[in-house]
Amino acid sequence: MGNRTSTARDEAAAAQSIGHFDHNYDAILIDQSAGMVEACTDRKEVPAAVKRLLGDGRYVELVMKFDTVQLVENQKTLLTIPYSGVKTLEWDHSCSSVKITANTAGEESFVVVKVGNSLELENEAKLRIRGLSRQGSGQQLNLTFAYCGTYAGPTKPKPFQRKRANLSTRPQGKLPPLALMRDLAIARHTGSGAPTRANGSKRVVHALQHIHRGGNTFTVLHAYQKGTAAEHQQGELHEFESKLALSCGTHEQPGLVYAEGQQVKLSHGWDDVQGWVVHDKVHAGEMNSGVEITFRGSGTWFFIVLDVLHLKDAIEHFWNRHRAPQPPKPQSTHGRDIVTVTTLHGEIKAPPKPVGDLEITDEVGTLVRSSGTAHGGVAKRKSTIIGSMVKGKKPTGWQENERVRKHWDSVVVHQGWLLKKGGLAKSWIKRYAVLYRTAMGHFLCYYADFAKSPLYHEEERERRIIDLCKVTFVRPVSNHDDVPPNSFDICTIEREWTLSAESKASMQRWLQIVTRAIDEDTAIVPDDELVFTVKPRVDPSQQLVKNEYSTALKVSASGVSVCAVTAADELVERFFWCYTDFFKWSILHHSGKTGLQVSVFTSADFDVKDRHEFLFRTRDAVKLATAIEFYIEKFMSIMHLYLEGTDNSGTSQELNMGASEMATNNLLGEDDMLALGGEDDDDQTGTKITQEDQLLEKQPASPTQGILDLFTVPSAPSSSQVNDPFAPGALPPKPPTDHLADDVSALSMETGFPPASAAPVRSDVVEEMTLGDAKFDALAVGAAEGANRMKGVLYEDPHVAVAIEHDYRGSEGRVTVRVANKCSTPIDSLRSDLDAGETGLRYEFGAPSSTSLQPGEAAAQLLMLECMKPFDAVAALVVSFRSQGVPYEVRLALPCVFTKFLEPVQLSPNVFVQRWATLGAPGLEHMVTFAATAGSANAAFAKPRLADLVRVAVVDGVDDGGGSILSGATALRTGTVNAGGEKISVGCLIRLEMNEAAGAFRLTVRTAVPHVSTALAEAIQKLL
């Protein structure tokens, strides 16, 4: 692998000095946006040498200068773009091309050029950008790199930078809602998709079975034909061992065979299968999970199996492969072909699949077997001197394994000789490599000799197995120095494989076929887990042992299990993070050590303000981050295909977000930050100068600290939040029941039967209620009596009494309005409505439980609310009815003020100070000094009122003036979504200074919305 330190030092030196030189590349201008480059008036003939390499077209020179990139034609400069003006550099190394997109407003401005060696150009571009950044050139460099396909250059790309092939006809970038994806991930992780131990993959076992036996066999616990008596004996296990065998059905063997003991009960080809449905309820604890298959002529059968996930994968593979070119089964992930590929010109139809070589030759090139035909007596088995003496290897004829011969051509995609470094001397040795297409995906296996392959050997003699679904990228030119010509790298989440072909043509063929197989496995995910032992340094959950290597992170298909390592070296899961729970992760470097900082959502609505930040030290931080990124990309590919099973065609049920949009990075190093889900509040720019002692203990922030919030995290939710059914993560409110109107306890009144009014009543008491009505105050922000009451009487007069009961969760609220008849006569035409005014509330009023009330009766009506924007107005509740033919209407102030949509935000002292400074711009602050009228001007009185009535989370550890100052944070939740599809929240910070001797408070409120600052200050003032 070489010396990484010296390599990094050499690259730094190269980045420092490369700016002193210009570099010209011969290029062909392939495409451009309108007006980007002037039309060619005097086309220059393409030099013969360039034409042989790049083909014909408009010949230009691409010039990499110190601070600009230029296109030159006939010594005339066509285009000059400073590096600060470049938005993206998108690479397609499969055709040695690059798309340069300028950072301009309006329509996209770009040029696409083809060069002789795009890998060299990419490396130079990164060196120049890195050099400019380190030299402090003054240019603001915000450009990003992107890639088409699986090829990469010397620098490892992030999965989110790549545009992969599309297996579906649905446009890329469409995903189900986050909540649905999370439910699916948990169901898989706790059910049939529970990961196997590291290096214990069931997929590999099934794949080898397919390679050596031509299909897959699954143990059946019980099987029955629907509509027969056996259907009612589902709980009974078979007396004999029962098997369901699947194959492609093209090599003298039916596609599907079911046998009980030695008796074959079913035998059908795939043409006889009319349809099938998987019933996977393992996550729900049901044991009767399996597959239901309808056969032509045999009815519908249900097979109960233990390994339902891999059975599903196998059926998908054989079914889709048999039905091609018909569309694959919706939501399937196996046996699919590519529909479109992404190029620098956009998505295009996938090119024809490259054809592999099915001929077998010995190591000197003698033909042993052409496709389907054996040649004997002339080929040599590969041998060494020791092997010849010990094993007696000599020229001989070859007897094919009859069992394998029948299906060999159906599983082999390509085969041939490759050089692989190995042996005791670590020399380059020829190995016979075979690429297989199995029901579990593609696998590249190599053998000591072709005679050790399954076609000629009874036993499994694979020396190594490369699972192509684990590949992160492929380098078409090896990144290592001590390699033979025509070498390439296959990089997986576990290791890198460097292989060398016999010729350039052979290498290109291997690369085309391997990368196509990788693309076809885009949605196939490994079933085993990667385990990383880490040392927790920051743990807001308080469930892990800090500062010891006693925690393991198990990374697998659906998420990351955070486990404690017991004394017996057992791993006990403490909690599980789905990939939808990840907000961001960063690799940190300090004092020669590395760590991984992970920020995860803690609320069910994926609010960026509700998250925990963990810090784990591990020397495998880069590998750990790569595994997380890899599995997120896989997870999103599966979720993209999941949409094929949905009936909706619009985007309301879909999240319009692709892999490249779910992450941002600066691409200037392998430790850059990826942010999922939204804007990051924490400054990570100073990670590389973090000192060791900052990890060991909490220290007050200092002006010279470069990382204000690097190791501080929000606290765990309070017990009140955990017990609150409307807290984040709780169940949604229950719908109203039929007996809603029967609950009149909130009215607490006597019915006096007063005489009816002689004239119509149209009362508007909204303003009077908001100026000091005790009932309104008690239900709105609280008063001395009945503070923060969730139900109570809002209004009463001689005719009616109105009571409300309200609950809130995030941006949503549920208000039950109850109206009681206090008259001595019936009332009818009863209804309630809402005048939202300038509040911006979105609402839906249900029908009343009754529109006619006898004396003393009450009716209820349900009002659903959602706060869409900050507001300081008051909505009007309009209650109307008729009594003795006279219409009445009462307009009341609804105590649904904006403070109802506040949620406490737990902040560390450092984060509070940082955000307080951020909100210090003019107009964002509201300060007021007032007398304490509700109680003493001290913390004992003020602190609980802030926490209970305004839901402010008090931050301890900030300068508190000896106990005379309280600092806190809360957030206003809204239902308005941003461009990323996430609900917008308004952060609110307060500082309350208390003078107990003078009986006065001074309150300072800062938010990003000026009138919210004012409204919140007024609400708090009313409480104190």
Automatic annotation (TrEMBL):
GO CC, alphabetical: clathrin adaptor complex
Cited InterPro entries: Clathrin_a-adaptin_app_sub_C (IPR003164), Clathrin_a/b/g-adaptin_app_Ig (IPR008152), Clathrin_app_Ig-like_sf (IPR013041), Coatomer/calthrin_app_sub_C (IPR009028), PH-like_dom_sf (IPR011993), PH_domain (IPR001849), PI-Interact_SigTrans_Reg (IPR051707), TBP_dom_sf (IPR012295)
Region of interest: Disordered: 716-741
Domain PH: 411-519
Origin: domain of life: Eukaryota
Signal sequence coordinates: none
Ranges in coiled-coil conformation: none
One Pfam entry name: Alpha_adaptin_C
Protein name in the entry: PH domain-containing protein
Native source organism of the sequence: Pelagomonas calceolata
